[in-house]
Amino acid sequence: MAAVDVIKSCLDSIALISEHVEGAILYLDSGCTESFQFTGAFPVLLELGARDICSLEKMSSLDSVVNWNSNSDPAWKIVVMTSRLLSDAHRYILRCLSTHKGVRQCTVFTSISELAQSAYPDSPLGPDAFHEYEILLLQDYEEIVKKIQKKASHSDVSSNFQESLTFEDEGWSRLTSSEEDVSHCEATSSGKYLFGESHTEYLGGKLVVSVHHFPLILCPFSPKVFVLPSEGSVSEAYLSAKHEDSLSPGLPPISTGVPPDGDDVPPGALLTAHFLYHLAAKMDLKMEIFSLGDLSKTVGKIMTDMSSLYDVGRRKRSAGLLLIDRTLDLLTPCCHGDSLVDCMFSSLPRREKTTSYSSTKGSKTQHKLVPSSLQRAPLDVQIPLGKVLQEEESNTNDSRLAERIEAFLGGWDACNSSPPETVDLVNLCNKVHDGKSFLSESQLLNGSFVSSETFRGTPYMEAILDRRTKDGAVLVKKWLQETLRRQNITVNVKIRPGFATKLELQPMIRALAKSQSSLIRNKGIIQLGAAVLVALDESHSTRWNAFVSAEKILSATAGDTSQSLGAQIGDLIHKSTMLGSDGDKKTDHLQGLLSFKDALLLMIVGYILAGENFPTSGSGGPFSWQEEHFLKEAIVDAILENASVVKLKFLDGLTEELEANLNRKKSEDTKEASSDQLESDDDQWGKWGDEEEDDGKNDKKQVYSDMQLKLELLDRVDNLFKSLHKLSTVKRRNLSLREGTFSLESNFTGDSGLNKSLIYKLLTRVLGKHDVPGLEYHSTTTKPSLADQNIIMVFVVGGINAAEVREVQEALSESGRPDVELILGGTTFLTPDDMFTLLMGDSSYI
Hints:
Elements: H1 6-15, H2 18-21, E1 25-28, H3 30-39, H4 42-47, E2 52-55, E3 77-82, H5 86-99, E4 105-110, H6 114-119, H7 129-150, H8 157-164, H9 177-186, H10 191-195, E5 208-213, E6 219-222, E7 225-227, H11 233-236, H12 267-282, E8 285-292, H13 294-310, E9 317-325, H14 331-334, H15 340-347, E10 383-384, H16 385-389, H17 400-412, H18 425-433, H19 441-444, E11 446-447, E12 454-455, E13 458-459, H20 460-465, H21 469-486, H22 502-512, H23 516-521, H24 523-536, H25 538-558, H26 562-576, H27 596-613, H28 625-641, H29 655-678, H30 689-728, H31 730-733, H32 735-738, H33 758-767, E14 776-777, E15 791-797, H34 802-815, E16 821-826, H35 832-839
Parallel strand pairs: 1-2, 1-3, 3-4, 4-5, 7-16, 8-9, 9-15, 15-16
Antiparallel strand pairs: 6-7, 8-14, 10-11, 12-13
Helix pairs in contact: 5-7, 7-8, 12-13, 15-24, 17-18, 21-22, 21-24, 22-24, 25-26, 25-27, 26-27, 26-28, 27-30, 28-30, 33-34
């Protein structure tokens, strides 16, 4: 029987909609774009006959001009693929229909099932959601067309266009003014062409609208590892509302043994359950569902209820599904493990988020204690190929490609200048030479990870996903060497076996990219090699290694006493504020490498470690009052001394005052220093009485102002420590962990001194056929053994990282069960910086 392959399942699903794709302008929202980037679906879509592939959020009237296929017929068919609720995508779908003339057929594919569309809180759609939406979309479109026809005789096209999009239907969002302006700008100067008779010439017929479910919108890192798109409704829906057991809208609440039910079920749990159910159905798997953690139990219950209603018909392969709350193990994603992929994702810049989707306009009962959506970091990294390929000594040929691309783009930039045919391409190229570029070379020549790219049939991403940093880099170097050898390209570089350095990798990458044909042919290994270069760069690797060293120190100290751990945390905060501004040598290897924000992340790690090693600590925190007072004072001093660079959520509303206070102190110090230089020891008359009295009043006023600011800051820091106290109690309050699930966890020790991940411990026990207390089976039938399943899918509600992928493979190898297929999935891909955002940043409940 064929092995489970998530990438193949995604591509097979695309092939099934070929009749819709052929001849159509295909619009993808940001979530679908991210998904198809990882799966390598764009060539498949073009092979199926797509006329053009465009961004839904950044649509333009010029999209219909491009035609990748030979068919020259006017575009009359639009296909929209969205990873969002129909109510959220509606305004963009409507804008597509309103912009393109002569559209006869609009097909919408959404990754959110019909049942989930109607069950989502405050959804304007009912049980027959898809059909209802078809009617509503047609109604809104016809309303816009009527407005256009009514105002067709007016000369103010901008007014016509803007008014046509100010629909007020209950439950639907409207475009922001900036988006309207962009749309109008893109519409070209000939308003009659877009909004006059030509636009409505097909009104004699009827626009045909159809809505379908397309569930396999996910981001596979390999055939057996996947996460959800960062800008899709499932990953952005909150996983917990704000209450005493919650940490972040992007993480499950602390498990207390009372899973959320009924109206208390977070939308993220609902959408996750529907996604996993339909994923299993598409892969022909019948899931035996097990869960650990309150929110995972809720997800499992929803899936079980759906299975009892809808699982009929064809026979499916049996598989086990293990659902785990991320909150049961916060330490693993907070730490900097030995993983090349984790290093790359932490080092590489990400694509900017395309736009902010607002919640439905008609929502009347939106929970006030949760955000309308959660902002996840985009998964689409931007590999700076332009910088990597650029020679040290610039010559006339090194940026010709960038020049030509930019000149072409500038030619189409008809919005703010003359029509395309009058643009002087020579002048545009000269602007690039003169440094007046409106797009940087890094923007023009960026790479991304594509999971389907292979080396002799081995997918690159799959091969390095479970590799340690050094091993993964050496493997990439071997691939580069072999590719050069097979293409008879000679590179004059000294190669050291067993190591991979920038001096070795960069010449090989440049040699493979010397010509355009070679660049295109070898783009997979070139992009991967460039990504490794960025991760190994000193600016990134030294910071990562500094974190590893600090985490080792904290882990080792946590085995002693709480006093020792508290002292180490305070020392790290102190060192983070002694960065120096003139490159002075530092006596401590951590000093100068970690910022104050980095020190706060280490403090999160320290408090979690304290909670795990001193679980009997009181509600006031794991450290004594004196130790915690020292930590608070250290943080307050650090903020006051670094106010200009400290941008943290718990300081919202206070940042400007802190910066003003710091600037005033600097100004006073400068004046005082200047005054001391000008004063003469021979002419010291002192100050008159009234002057001294006035200065005394000013001093008192200033001291009071400083004191007021410090008291307000102390209050904010107190609230920060309440959140840290909650982190330290996670293990004690989690019912699943209290029940002795990991009584033997001391036997699991990681390479960097930290404990192995929860996933590793769980799978080791499961595959060893040991009992796992707290693990719930979701069925009324006899409880099977998860270890008896040949296919096991582990899904972490809240997200995963690459170090966990390696440990999953380790657990499988150590079990001696080569017959078992393990699939690992999660809500999102987590880096330590992402965890900081969730626990202490903009996506926290701090």
